[in-house]
Write a structure and sequence with these properties.
Length: about 375
């Protein structure tokens, strides 16, 4: 497995958190202060204490980390040996990206005690796990409502609509024998089998396998549900509180976030209720990892670049790769032009004065 594309610059964004500092005081700090404030809390108390109702900033970080960088990371392993063995393995960029969204954390980890390091890992892991759990619970109901209101029937391959959406691309769901084998689990579906819902209009083209991949309507709706707001999924989005993308300063999609949402949608369509990396029935981790491998494969970056551009236009309407050039005929442009002329004239006048030197009648 090879990773290495890292985060877009838009993710490294100042973010405000409410942090416990002192016995009563609640203070707002930026992302660059998180690492130092974390150790301030830890070192004053042997057992870190956090006020009830106040979420530790690293938990917030962990929530975003799992969604946009790596959903199935073992944060303890990542941090505890991140500067040595782990960084030599395939998850090198996962460690680096985590350090990117918390500036100063790596320096603090290198000089921290084992207890402090474990505390940081626990907070980030807690955030990643809670975000995944929240997204799973939230999507399990709404995804079904989007495709067919629940009528109490089992989901997965036992439901006509979810069965078609989960049917591996290239399999014919209309074939009664294949449908029955999928229902009876005589055909083993693993994370390597990519389902119909991943594709635009749920159509897979074996001659052009990239065509429509990861452009399915369900994935886009789920992405908006998680990252912008549940109300933004509709045709006419309503004004709501800030979504996760805005809260975390996210202005473009990441490869991992697309793979994460696709994995969550796949699970929502299944008849399994517990999302777990060790779940062999849904094989969610394999599904996620294989998608991410494709999106980070250097040989596929031409198609991936087009895909990400498409995604950014779906999720962030103001996203543009075109550099904006101010028109030359606006009032502001004329003001700037006039100011430039005055500055040049002033500079020329000063130069003329310098060239004249002292006057001839200035004798002793």
């Amino acid at each position: 497995m090879e990773f290495g594309t890292g985060l877009p610059a838009s993710i490294n964004h100042p973010f405000m958190f409410t942090v416990f500092k002192g016995p009563i005081l609640l203070e707002l700090v930026s992302m660059t202060d998180i690492a130092s404030s974390l150790w301030g809390v830890v070192r004053r108390r042997r057992k870190p204490c956090i006020l009830r109702g106040v979420t530790h900033p690293l938990v917030h970080t962990g929530r975003h980390f799992g969604r946009i960088i790596y959903a199935f990371a073992n944060v303890h392993a990542l941090i505890m040996v991140g500067s040595t063995i782990y960084r030599l393995l395939c998850e090198l960029h996962v460690y680096n990206d985590l350090m990117t969204i918390v500036p100063g954390l790596e320096e603090q980890l290198l000089s921290s005690s084992e207890e402090e390091t474990m505390f940081a890992a626990n907070m980030i892991q807690k955030g990643a796990n809670s975000a995944c759990s929240d997204d799973t619970k939230s999507l399990k109901g709404v995804v079904i409502d989007w495709i067919a209101p629940s009528d109490g029937e089992p989901l997965g391959f036992n439901h006509e609509r979810t069965g078609f959406l989960l049917c591996p691309a290239g399999f014919d769901w209309a074939d009664a024998e294949i449908k029955q084998q999928l229902k009876n689990k005589e055909l083993l579906v693993t994370g390597a089998h990519w389902p119909n819902f991943l594709y635009r209009n749920e159509k897979f083209d074996p001659d052009e396998p990239w065509r429509g991949l990861l452009r399915g309507e369900l994935i886009v709706k789920a992405y908006k549900h998680i990252f912008t707001s549940p109300s933004s999924v509709g045709i006419e989005p309503k004004a709501t509180r800030s979504g996760n993308a805005r809260i975390h300063g996210m202005s473009s999609v990441t490869r991992a976030s697309v793979a994460y949402v696709a994995t969550q949608v796949r699970f929502a369509l299944c008849d399994t209720n517990v999302f777990s990396r060790t779940d062999k029935e849904t094989d969610s981790e394999t599904f996620y990892v294989l998608l991410l491998e494709l999106l980070e494969d250097p040989e596929e970056q031409g198609e991936v670049k087009e895909l990400l551009l498409w995604w950014n236009r779906q999720i962030f309407p103001s996203f543009s790769t075109v550099k904006r050039i101010a028109p030359s005929n606006t009032a502001l442009a004329k003001i700037k032009e006039k100011r430039a002329i005055l500055k040049r004239q002033a500079a020329l006048g000063q130069r003329d004065l310098n060239c004249q030197g002292p006057s001839d009648d200035a004798d002793s």
